[in-house]
Amino acid sequence: PGREGAAPAKRRLGVMGGTFDPIHHGHLVAASEVAAQFHLDEVVFVPTGQPWQKSHKSVSPAEDRYLMTVIATAENPQFSVSRIDIDRGGPTYTTDTLRELHALNPDTDLFFITGADALGQILTWRYTEELFSLAHFIGVTRPGHPLADPGLPEGGVSLVEVPALAISSTDCRDRVAKGDPIWYMVPDGVVRYIAKRRLYRGE
Ligand code: ATP
Ligand code: MG
């Protein structure tokens, strides 16, 4: 550090992909903890595009998921939100997300943050070899999901313990549908947005 003529340190950008239907404190704590442990300059939240094939699971409109993510992250100067997956259209593949972020952010190292459940599925993703050349992968602990190295490339993935929050978007949606409170599971502004837009009320 400080060496004469040494290349300046690259910017370190965390990438938190998700459906965020809705975003909750489990997502925010994971991003905050990884940002601190990995000395990230910023974490960008990237809501997924609208799945055009709504077979078994219907997802809220992309615009609602995007706005909830903005509301939840607006106060943190280290957090931002990207529309790239929403604006691309079609299903979201993480390779496309990382390729695009790479092009938009020269001289930046990317750190893709993913929960233990999603990390387990990583080897089933498309273009796995390319994924690891685009970003360092960080698997975070999540209550109810074992965090094990699923045989990922040497040095390509770090496993990180984050404060345990047994919150899922599925549970938040179910609670709203039943009329149960979600205060303190998601940021206050997100509770109010869900009420205003009458999301997750069922038929
Ligand atoms: P759903 O129940 O609809 O699948 P979710 O709570 O799993 O929602 P996602 O948007 O699917 O939320 O998750 C985005 C990312 O955040 C994934 O990598 C997921 O593993 C991670 N994540 C979600 N909840 C937590 C949590 N409570 N602790 C740690 N990581 C989490
Ligand atoms: Mg999930």
TrEMBL record:
| Presence of keyword ATP-binding | yes
The pathway to which it is assigned is:
Cofactor biosynthesis; NAD(+) biosynthesis; deamido-NAD(+) from nicotinate D-ribonucleotide: step 1/1
Q: Which principal EC class is assigned to this enzyme?
A: transferase
Q: Which domain of life is it from?
A: Bacteria
Protein family (similarity comment): Belongs to the NadD family.
Q: What HAMAP family is this protein classified in?
A: NaMN_adenylyltr
- What is the protein's given name? Probable nicotinate-nucleotide adenylyltransferase
Q: Tell me which species this is from.
A: Streptomyces beihaiensis
The gene behind this protein is nadD
